[in-house]
Amino acid sequence: MSxxxxxxxGTGDETSRKTGRVVFETTPTIKVTLIWFGITVVxxxxxxxxxxxxxxxxxxxxxxxxxxxxxxxxFAAILLRFGIKxxxxxxxxxxxxxxxxxxxxxxxxxxxARELPIExxxxxxxxxxxxxxxxxxxxxxxxAGGTDQSLGFxxxxxxxxxxxxxxxxxxxxARRADGD
Length: 180
What we know:
single chain, alpha+beta, 3-stranded antiparallel beta sheet, 4 helices, 8 strands, 42% helix
């Protein structure tokens, strides 16, 4: 059994919604990534402006130009990464049913869903960066126990009200273990 299911968005295949009633469904926020994007723009832009204002900073203008272009390309790559992450997060959906938990997203005619059956969850990891903590968001990782053929994990990133979601899922796991 695979934890990851890929389907073509054009076929109308709804394999990711096949089991159980939905306990709750939510989407991640892009606020945290947007803040990191802004911090990167300010710091990277400041460094680039400083290099433009001081062309003889490294002794020769050619050396400063090389450093400028290296930093510019690195800066552009980081901004592109944050842009892609925000794009994916806006198309991501977190679904918890009585049978499984899923992270789903759709990108340009392709659907991706990673699911983990409730009975396979062996641990819930909670992580909260400083920015997430200030804004009240967090990341939940659902870990599966097992051997080399383990299902791995499913991660709910930048989740609104992560403590409430964790408690609801713990209750669901306990009910499942009790046979309800």
